[in-house]
Every structure is written in C-alpha cells, then in structure tokens.
Amino acid sequence: MCDTCGCNQSPDAVTYRKPGGHDHPHRHGDTEHAHPHEHEHDHDHGHHHDHGHDHGHDHGHDHDHGGGRRLSVEQDILRRNDVVAERNRGWFEGRGVLALNLVSSPGSGKTSLLERTIRDLKGEIPLAVIEGDQQTLNDAERIAAAGAPVLQVNTGFGCHLDAEMVRRALAELAVPSGGVLLIENVGNLVCPALFDLGEHAKVVIISVTEGDDKPQKYPAMFAAASLCVINKTDLLPYVDFDVEACKDAARRVNPALAFVELSATGGEGLDGWYRWLRDRRAAAAR
Amino acid sequence: MHEMTLVAGILEIAEERAREAGAARINTVTVEIGRLAGVELSALVFCFETARLGTMAAGAELVVCELPGRGRCPACGADAEIDFYAALCPACDGCLQVVGGRELRVASLDVD
Ligand SMILES: [Zn+2]
C-alpha cells in the first residue's frame, strides 16, 4: 500500500508529467512497501462505539486485553498532509501566488473553463496549472495548447490530490511569482474535501446538466468552498435545473459561499469569474 | 476511497507512538471519527484489516468512537446535535452551522 496517496497501489503509480516531455515516476519518499503475509488474527473484527448525546471526552472504554498498557495519543490522522499543506501555503505566500483548488464531478466543464481563462487572461495574469487526473495526459495537453505552464499528476487509482503531490509538482512547475496557480483536482466531490493542499480557496464547479441537488448530496464540499461556479448556463433552456434552488441549498450549508453563473464555451458570465479571480489575487499579493 | 489514506495515517501514528513507548505490539487502536467527517466506517475497518498486516498492529483491533455532529444557530445561538449538514435550528428554524463532528483523531492505543 502506498502511504502517500493511500490507495492500494504500488508507490510508483503516481506520476508527474509535462505535455511533450518524458515520463518520470517518483518514488514516494523512502518508505518500505513490503508486506509480509503472516496472518495473525487474534482480534480480527473491527467494531465501533456509538456515542450519543453529550460525548464528554472521557475515553473510558474498557477493553481488557490482558496486561497491556493504554497509551493516550490524541493526534490528528491527517497531520502529515496538514503539515505539508502548511509548507505549501508558505511557498505561495512567499511568492505572492494565489492558489485555487478547483473541485467538481467529472464532466462539469472544469478543463474548458481553465482553457478559456488562460486564453482570456494570459496577457494580464501569469497563470500555471496542476492537473490531477487518474490516468491520462489529455487535460494537460489542452492546457498547454491554451498557453500556460502545466504539470500533470496522475494519481493512478487515487481519488484526490494530497498536499505532498502538490509540493512535488511545485518543484517541477514554473509557477510565476505574483501569478495564479490553478489546481484541477480529480473529478470527485467527496474525497478532495478532506485534503488541504495549502490553497487559498476551493472553487466548486457544477454544471446545469448535473441536477440542482448537488449541494445536498455533497454538503462537505460545498461547506469547504469559497466560490461556486455554475457552468453551462447556455443550456438552461433545455434542462431541468433551478439555479435559485441550487443556490439556496448551497447557502444552507455555507452562508458565505459566493456564486458565479457562466458559460465557459459561450462566454456569458465570465466577467464575474474574472472579477472574483482578480479580487482574490489582489488579496493574496498583499 | 480516501479511507485507505486515513488508515495509512492511523497506522503511522500508532506505530510511532508504540515504538516511542517501547511496546512490542499494538493490541487495540482507538480512533475518534466525527459523524460529519465524510468517512465510511465500514470501508475504514475493511482497509484497516488489510493495511495492518506487516505492521506492529498486525493483530490489532480497530475501535471506532463516533463523535456526534454539533450545530450552532447563527441567529439565536442555540446548540443542537446533528447528523447531517444544513439542519434546522430546533428553537428558531434558522440554519445551523456545523461546529463539531468533523474530527479525525487517533485517541489511544492498547499495547504490550
Ligand atoms: Zn436558532
């Protein structure tokens, strides 16, 4: 098992590639991935306790395991990710870079929005992109063609980017000082909500072809995001999507969430997205 | 399947602490998982049973204490226990904001 991306795959499965460049897999640190298969099952069931009302943090579970000692630990399971995320945050801060973590389901039009943004803003704002995808280099090729430096992180079977993947990508990608780094996370609204990459903000992108109940289905992601982009508004006349109902549902989990409605292909509403980007960039540069 | 990532973090912390304490093996790992943390508990236990092999916790049991979600009403200040996002305030029908239930912690170990 790989302990960096945590998905049951060989440590060489996560790759960092540039379009047109050569492949070079990186090992995850120097951890040993050998698993001797001695099957010793003296306690081979897991179980869980349900603490109902007013869990008072007295960890008085009495499990007798015959003469053993109890060690109090109290450590955050994601501490390693969070430490690296903090380093990434310092890296961004030191260079005045605005870093955005773009999350969505597959097919929301995230890559199209990035292509359009790069074409429209590259003369004004230096942009760079980290593309997270399980297998392909397709999205990175589209970004490179649009004219921004891009690094593809293939996570193999991994369902999210973590802070360490971003740290490694930063070492290889020329991110311009004072610019904007757009991190396109793996298409998935569940797992990426849990992993801090050190970004300034999460931007959740949904399209009107997906159904307006996305915020109810994936509340943790909407709670964690700063901006919600509602894409493909040119298709509104043809689909059953209630924009106001969607916004209301999202505001219930996150009253501070901002919204932009746009069509990345048609172009309407893009000015709102660019305004938000410029405002956040100015704030990050301060 | 971020549960495998979480299990890797749990085992790393557990082995580190057990080694520091001079333990030979880990019998029980007790974790606290908030009900709103987005963790599938059955997947967590399943991943643990695979990933523990070859570690100091090879024969260990995973005990999961589920911590309740907590909401606070921004309008009237009321507190309530919740098990989903966007729950309504029992006092004034305002929308409760999540203030607890996202915990992901290794609480304690039983070791020999
Ligand atoms: Zn209230």
C-alpha Rg of chain A, in Å?
21 Å
Any ligands, ions or cofactors bound here, and which?
Answer: zinc ion
In terms of quaternary structure, the protein is heterodimer
Helix content range of the residues of chain A, please? Answer: 25-40%
Instruction: Give the proportion of residues in helices of chain B.
Output: 25-40%
Count of strand segments of chain B: 6
Largest sheet of chain A: 9 strands, mixed
Number of helices of chain B: 2
The number of E-state strands of chain A comes to 11
What is the general shape of chain A?
globular
Mean pLDDT of chain A: 83
Greatest interface and its participating residue counts: A-B, 65 and 60 residues
Beta-strand content of chain A: 15-25%
End-to-end separation of chain A in angstroms reads 42 Å
Mean pLDDT of chain B: 94
Question: Strands of the largest sheet of chain A, in order across it?
Answer: 2-1-7-6-8-5-9-10-11
What brief labels describe this structure?
heterodimer; A: 286 residues; alpha/beta; 9-stranded mixed beta sheet; disordered N terminus; B: 112 residues; alpha+beta; 3-stranded antiparallel beta sheet; binds zinc ion
What does this structure look like?
The complex is a heterodimer of chains A (286) and B (112). Residues 1-11, 22-45 and 50-65 of chain A have low confidence and may be disordered. In chain A, α1 runs parallel beside α4 (163-172). The radius of gyration of chain A is 21 Å and the shape is globular. A nine-stranded mixed β-sheet of chain A has the order 2-1-7-6-8-5-9-10-11, with helices on both faces. Chain A is built from eight helices and eleven strands. With 286 residues, chain A is an alpha/beta fold. In chain A, β1 and β2 form a beta hairpin. Chain B is of the alpha+beta class. Chain B is built from two helices and six strands; from the N terminus they run αβαβββββ. In chain B, β1, α2 (41-51) and β2 form a beta-alpha-beta unit. Chain B starts with a helix and ends with a strand. At the A-B interface, β3, β4, α1, α6 and α7 of A face α1, β1, α2, β2 and β6 of B. β4 of chain A pairs antiparallel with β6 (104-111) of chain B, so a sheet runs across the interface. The complex binds zinc ion. Zinc ion is lined by residues 73, 75-76, 78, 89, 91-92, 94 of chain B.
